[in-house]
Each structure stands twice: as C-alpha cells, then as structure tokens.
Write a structure and sequence with these properties.
Blueprint: H1 6-21, H2 32-47, E1 53-55, E2 58-60, H3 66-75, H4 87-107, H5 110-121, H6 124-129, H7 136-151, H8 155-169, H9 172-188, H10 193-196, H11 199-221, H12 223-229, H13 237-243, H14 251-258, H15 263-275, H16 279-301, H17 314-330, H18 333-337, H19 341-360, H20 364-391, H21 394-424, H22 426-434
Antiparallel strand pairs: 1-2
Helix pairs in contact: 1-4, 1-5, 2-3, 4-5, 4-7, 5-17, 5-21, 7-8, 8-9, 8-11, 9-16, 11-12, 15-17, 15-19, 16-17, 19-20, 20-21
C-alpha cells in the first residue's frame, strides 16, 4: 500500500517534533561550534556585514552565510533565551524524519515509511543533533530532499534543494549530489539519464543563484575569497586544531555506538536489502547505499571530524532498517523463526547494559539513573526474546527497539549530559579552548 494512513500520518508528525524539541534547552553546549555560530550571528547584527561569515576577525569564505542569516534573525530578538538558536536544527531534524515517512511510502509502501521514520527518531545521535546549533541538520535535510526528489524524478525541485545544500554546506553541497547522481546512473548503466535530468542547465541555474554573492565577495577580497571558497576550512583555526586530533577510523566505532539499539539489526538488514528487494526497489536502495558509502568516505577524508557529522549518513541507514522491518512483517512464521535478528539484538542490548554500568561508575549522581537504565534494558531484552521466540511479532519487536531508543534519549538529555557538563564545567572548558 503506497497511500498514507491518516492516523499514522499525524501520530508520526507529532512524535518527530516531540523527539526533536524534547529538553531542547536542558542539553548543555557539547560542540565548540555552538558558541562560534552564536557569535557569528551576533557579529553580523553588530557590523551589518551579512555576506561574509566571520568570527573574531577570521573570515571563512567556504561557507555561504545563509544559515547564519537564520540565526541572526533569532538573535535579533534579544529577549529570546539562548537555546532558541537550536530551533532551526530541531525543525530540520523533525522535517527530515517526517519526509522520510512521506517519500518511503511512495517508494516502497506505507509500512516501510512508518518504520523508517521511527528508526530515525529513535537513534540517539539524531535526537542529539536536533539539540545543537549546528548547520549539519539543515544540510542533511536539504540533501535528503534532493535525494528524494531525484528518485521521484522531480528534477527542477531537486535543483532547488541543491541550492539549499550549497547555501548551508558550501562547495560540498554541489559536489556530493552531482557525484551521487553520476555514480547512480553509472551503476544502473543509464548514463543517458544525465541528459534527461538537464544536469548542465540545472547546475548553471544553481551557479546563477550564487553568482551575486560570488561576484561581490570576489570584487572585495579577490584571491583570498577564491582560495577560501575552494577549501574546507573551519569557521575558526583553533576549532580546526581541536577537530583534527582524530584518526582516520574515528567514525567506525562511534557509528556502531550511535546506532544503538539498532546496531545488531543493521548487518542482517543490509544483507536482506540485496537478497530480497525487487528490481524497482533495488534501484532506490542502490542510491541509499551509494549515499551511505560516499558519505562515510567523505567524512573520513574531511579534515574536520565531529561526532554530529555522522548525521549525514543516518537517513539512508534508517531507510534500509525501516525497509527490512517492513519485509519482516510480511514473512511467514517459519521464516521469522530462522532469522538472525534476535542474536544481533541480544548482543546489542547486552553491550548497552555494560555501557550503563560503566557510565554509572563515572559519577555518584549517575549511579541511580544508570542502574535504572540497566534494569530497563534487560527488561526490554527479555521482552524482545520472548516476543521473537514465542510470538514472532515483528511489530512488537520493532517497537521495543524504538522504546529503547526513546529511553536512551531521555537518559542522555535529562541526566548524563547535564551532570557531566556540570561536573567538568564543560561550557567553561570549551570557552577556554576557543580562547
């Protein structure tokens, strides 16, 4: 069924916004960028210079100022609390999850869209990204819409979202989408599609939109602007030093942890998406895998490494997991009995139990919340085992994972981050680093 269920439509709409806006102001500053972004917005208002992103005299030409216009509009109202600069990120995360439901319903069916949306909002890293004043959620929303418009053959609308990608991500916002389109057509053996989508004309239109900004800055700053635009510099050199102290494999272990409680489900879902998908579904799943692989390679090669940048690869992962849960619901009783998902879930939940135990040892204040989380994790694990061994109820199995993801969100936003930030004075520590 490729039609929306009206009740589920409004339930998911509400859930996405609740997950994104939950405890928006209670999560402390976790990224150095949050302070810098706020200072840039204030600098724009103070100096009246809205065409260049600058902080403490350091100009960054690799990023167009669109996102900071949004923050400046919020900072203009001085009576608003500081955490209001996180509202654009929360809105973009919730819209990404909601449109994931809408488009996956059209691509596959309504159940695939339902599960994809729930998987996305139950990943702790995704919910955390909604609570940071960072341009990555805005960029990922624009990129997700570009991907869906491309797969739906809505090409001129696709170029509109490429404009938004460039506006929030700079040069990467045009290179990454074009690379994915080319690789997708190449893998399908349909390079003639590059002409059908009017690629050259579309890119010229994208360039035309940004030409006034490029011409004005080039006239004012000359070669400094040209070199800066074709670079991947940080917003400040001292943040660049902080973010570069990570190895090439930095994202691999973090991805496995960030995906919990879905980590054990991932490998089986990847296998099934190749083995069980139909021809028309495989074309769209291929794009998701190209997005995932190219995005991960891009993150590993990118000179700056922040945990929240993993948000870039979360939508395709959610689609793969959601599609597989949908397929599991259609399987027979015997097929579900012989699947390998239960083993992965058991291992993942046991690892999570150990994580809660370790976190409880970090602080006396975290001891009780961590032990409560250990108990709830083991309780949900027993329910998952009982559900799959005796009832083969895929819906309840998936909802237990979603419930675990929501519990993770509550623990981290209400207990872990505020307590740790207070004990190590995280806000002051970041300010010292920036000085």
């Amino acid at each position: 069924m490729k039609e929306y269920d009206e009740k589920i439509f409004f339930i998911l709409l509400g859930l996405t916004f609740v997950a994104a806006f939950f405890a928006l102001g209670s999560v402390p500053i976790l990224e150095p960028y949050e302070i810098i972004y706020q200072d840039i917005a204030k600098t724009m208002l103070k100096t009246g210079e809205f065409l260049v992103v600058q902080n403490d005299g350091y100009k960054n030409f690799s990023m167009p100022p669109f996102y900071f216009w949004v923050l400046s509009a919020i900072e203009y109202f001085e009576t608003m609390p500081d955490f209001f600069i996180r509202v654009p990120s929360a809105v973009c995360v919730s819209l990404t999850a909601f449109f994931l439901y809408s488009y996956c319903t059209k691509f596959f069916d309504e159940r695939a869209g339902f599960w994809s949306c729930l998987v996305l909002i139950s990943i702790s890293l995704v919910v955390l990204s909604a609570k940071l004043a960072f341009n990555v959620p805005f960029f990922v929303f624009a990129f997700t819409m570009f991907a869906f418009c491309y797969l739906r053959c809505q090409y001129w609308l696709m170029y509109l979202f490429i404009v938004l990608c460039v506006a929030t991500g700079g040069l990467a916002g045009i290179v990454f989408p074009v690379l994915l389109i080319f690789l997708h057509c190449l893998c399908l053996g349909k390079l003639e599609r590059l002409f059908n989508i009017h690629l050259v004309l579309g890119l010229l239109c994208v360039g035309l939109v940004f030409s006034p900004w490029v011409i004005i800055n080039n006239a004012q700053y000359g070669n400094e602007f040209v070199k800066g635009f074709f670079s991947f510099n940080s917003l400040a050199p001292y943040v660049q030093d902080i973010a570069q102290n990570h190895s090439f494999w930095y994202y691999f272990p973090i991805l496995l942890i960030a995906l919990m409680p879905w980590t054990g489900f991932l490998f089986g879902a990847v296998w099934d998406s190749f083995a069980d998908s139909k021809i028309d579904e495989m074309e769209k799943m291929l794009f998701m895998y190209l997005w995932l692989v190219c995005g991960f390679v891009f993150l590993m090669c990118y000179p700056l490494r922040f945990v929240t940048m993993l948000w870039l690869v979360m939508p395709p992962l959610a689609v793969v997991l959601g599609w597989d849960l949908c397929c599991m619901e259609k399987k027979s009783y015997r097929e579900i009995e012989n699947n390998h998902y239960l083993t992965g879930s058991v291992v993942t939940f046991l690892i999570m139990t150990n994580i809660w135990y370790v976190l409880g040892k970090l602080s006396q204040e975290l001891l009780l919340p961590s032990y409560v989380m250990m108990f709830l994790t083991l309780l949900l694990l027993v329910a998952i085992v009982f559900t799959m061994l005796y009832y083969r109820d895929v819906f309840f199995y998936g909802m237990l994972h979603v419930g675990m993801g929501i519990l993770n969100m509550v623990f981290f936003t209400l207990f872990f981050f505020p307590i740790i930030a207070e004990q190590i004075n995280l806000h002051e520590h970041i300010l010292n680093l920036l000085k």
